Amino acid sequence: MIIKRPYVLKTIRKVTPLVSSFVFKAQDNTAIDFVPGMFAMLEYRDHATGESISRAFSIANPPPSNELEFLISLIHGRFTSKLDTAKAGDVYYVSAPYGQFKFDIKSGSKFLFLAGGTGIAPFLSMLRMIDKNNIGIDCRMLYSVRYPEEIINKDELEEMQQRMGVKTVVTVTRAQEGGEWSGEKGHADSAMILRHVSDVRERSSYICGPPAFVKALKDALVSLGVDEKSIHAEMWGE
Ligand SMILES: Cc1cc2nc3c(=O)[nH]c(=O)nc-3n(C[C@H](O)[C@H](O)[C@H](O)COP(=O)(O)OP(=O)(O)OC[C@H]3O[C@@H](n4cnc5c(N)ncnc54)[C@H](O)[C@@H]3O)c2cc1C
Fold this sequence. Notes:
This protein is of the alpha/beta class. Helices cover about 20% and strands about 35% of the residues.
């Protein structure tokens, strides 16, 4: 049974101009177990008005843990506007874990992660779990952002590439003409996947990002002959 528990906001860290990392710790220190890829329901309660509002957020840290990290795009919506003024020590309510987007390490020996924006969150959970448990893995990641400054945890991704051999290719969809970005540009598609992952058909693929991104990449994988059964997907935002 999934129990809703009070969690204390421990740290807030700006990771890009729009996205912040929020780390919450269970007030009673209970560690929850989950599979990387799963999400939590985070609830804000306004005790003065009795208002309560919940949203789903992918868990970015590895299991099991009495802490949960979320990478949240602060879009000033109903829930995220509450987070604009959140501070360490605030109490939120969390129930977890939920979802069918689960990283199955036994589903193959080679993996392809396709991430768009904050869709990198479940992949960080997966990669951190692999790292924590010292699991050797052949994993490639294609990560799409609008601008270079929107790359979440760039240093950590580079470090994972050096130390764990997890090669991440970033594509910038709104790169400035004549700007400094020298990497891949434009929306990820089948040609871009093939340029970096020639053995795509041998890999289990996981896609997470906005609906249009997920649909386009799923279609691209299928057009490359990838078996639909080996494609796992999660989407949110717009
Ligand atoms: C399984 C799951 C996992 C999720 N994980 C994450 C996560 O790790 N990080 C994260 O930031 N969000 C995540 N979300 C989205 C999150 O649950 C909220 O929908 C989001 O934070 C907006 O909530 P809000 O109340 O602030 O906006 P609302 O008031 O509900 O919406 C305001 C407006 O913004 C639009 N909108 C909603 N989301 C986005 C977006 N991301 N970018 C641009 N416009 C948007 C809505 O369509 C609406 O028009 C996840 C959603 C699901 C279903």
